[in-house]
Amino acid sequence: MDATDGASEPLKEPEDGEKPVSDEPFDLDELLPAIGEFGRYQKLLLWLICLPACIPCGFCAFNQLFMTDVPHEYWCSIPELQNFTVEERKQYGIPMEEYNGISEYSKCSRYAIDWRQYLANNGDLPPSPPNSSWPVEPCYDGWEYNTSVVSSSIVIDYNLVCEYDIYPTLGLVALNTGGPVGVYLFGLLNDRAGRRTSYFSCLATLLLGSFMTAASSNFAMWAFSRVIVGLTIPAVYQIPFIIALELVGPNYRSFVTVMTCTFYTCGLMMLAGVTYLIRDWVELTLFTSVPFLFYFGYMFVMPESPRWLLMKGKLEEALQVLEKMARVNGKQFPAAFKNKLQARVDAEKRRTVKREEVSIGAFDLCRTPNMRLKTILITLNWFVNETVYLGLSYYGPSLGENQYLSFFLSSLVEIPSYIVCWIIMDRWGRRWPMCIMMIMGGLCCVTTVVLPEDAVSETLFLYLLSKSMLSASFLIIYPFAGELYPTQVRGVGIGTSSYIGGLGLIVIPFITYLGKENLVLPLVIMGCVSVAGGFTGLRLPETLHHRLPQTLEEGELFGADWTFDDCFRCVPSKKSPAGSYENLSHELSDAALELNAGMPVSRAYEPTTSTEKTPLEIARIRRQSMKRLVRQASTMDTQKTADGAMQLTYWF
Predict the structure, then answer these.
(1) Where, by residue number, does the polypeptide cross the bilayer (predicted)?
(2) What is the DSSP string of 297-353?
């Protein structure tokens, strides 16, 4: 993955009477205050389209957990004894074994008797049951299942028990393997064909994979269908998320991010109810996918991102979206903006020399010692947060007495953690809340090892505490990483860390698989990983109240003065660089005075004298000043291209 930093080349000289156009790219954020940063248009888009579009991801990513339910009781099938009762078949054909100190019928072996010949010679079962001295053999003819609790699953249909019990875990690996590939492929489509085309292509792929899942006749076909579904996760909810982010002002992007996470979690809570009501795995697959066919109705109302349209030079289409936004928001669309944008597009068409692109890759993050250390620590903490968070999500149904209630509660506890996280980030910073949540959440997991085996409720309670804390820390790592990486390499930095972090999703199903032998062992492993990651995160510098780095050189200097005492500083000190954050430049102060004087909004885009400044000019002054002095406000953006268009990131 590469990020580009466009170096401006001079344009062709304007013709006589033609006003020269600045080579600086136009920032759409300058227009949003005039037509509405979060008006009626954005609210309708967010609540009716973008947030509901998050639900398919959770449904199709986690319904697999309930397709692979394992019946508590199963035993070898003996076709020759099918005319006898279940108890007789088990009594005469299945040896007894001890499981956790309890004597039960064996699940993976049977007596090695030729029952066809025996019944032909004797006509009936032996007068007394076999004893342990009789030879045994594996279940060559499959298994029988007690379906009183689990009536349908791929485990029953495909006989995935005993030596095949690792197969459901491989199904989760198949699902998670598709994720990074899908983010890359749909990311390319997202940038080249637009957000609408990419989203509906992603949705069609998701539904195709789900229909293939329902139609699968064997495990190989089922696993392949899960790879198809995995291609769309998390891209299917990140694309509408990006559309929402690109259409709201910077001050509202934190809110959009938190609401997206909340709706995603609400989708998981709804899934718990659906899985409780529908126990047949084929019907469950269809019920959690077919309703999303109605989402294709969004084709008539979902707008294309104007940022992408402008990036592609589609001026008229972009203006249609922006003018409609202004009209729905009850704002006057500034005519001067259209003229300026037209001049910009014409200037790009007349450009005789293309912009030079300076390629910056992941290896550039590791060329200097401080940046190398921060990159390693960011990536490590991303890996820990994503792996443990998803591992806990996968393991929820295994705990408690009711798997549906446990899964519902494990999703419910995420919502308050998002709200608390949103509040404390701007008060206590990023580092301490993230690290404390990781350490305390990990300790809650590790503590389960001291509980007795029958402490089901207590284990579930500690698990829920841990899940809540890890949800908060996982939400923090995204903006924290974005602030630690310099602006010049932010896209490639976040992309690299998220992709490497996503590799943990391929490993975590094998960790949860260990719970078949020891219920708390996966919790202990994930807890230790979380605690270790939390302590390493303390070595990262705090970003709240600090001037953020813009270049790799500044990134190398940022945090270079870190001391061990910084680990114990909970509330970050307000370190302001030379000059106030508000007093960015004399130009900005003069412009602010003009605004305070009460210049009408209607005059904002009218021609002005040389001494007056319009809001567009003020915004440009502010943006130019902010390049020299940056103040962050916990805005959770996704990675961007050099043109300002947002990109997909492998982030659940």
Answers:
(1) 44-66, 166-187, 199-221, 227-248, 255-278, 284-302, 375-392, 404-425, 432-450, 462-480, 492-513, 519-538
(2) GGGGTPPPPHHHHHHTT-HHHHHHHHHHHHHHTT-PPPHHHHHHHHHHHHHHHH-SS
